[in-house]
Task: structure prediction
Amino acid sequence: MNTIIISDSTPIALLTVGQLRELLNLDKQPEPIATNNERRLIYGLAGIRKLFNVSHATAYRYKETIIKDAVSQRGRKIVVDAEKALELFNANLKGA
Result:
């Protein structure tokens, strides 16, 4: 059995499928990302606009009313817990 020594100058065409998989780490299972402890944060009115796909004025209104409990603001810096904001928004829709 011929063993090819793989170096930086080895052409890809000379690799077997197994060698290519090994180099690309395709055989390894991806590690699950632990999202239970991590919060997804969005920043500013632009983040709120993207999250809800609304205008600037509507994002400001949401910040001041519907998602107020998910918003943290110090000076001009606005940080929003996205998951909590979505929960508050959905709860508001069900109550309306």
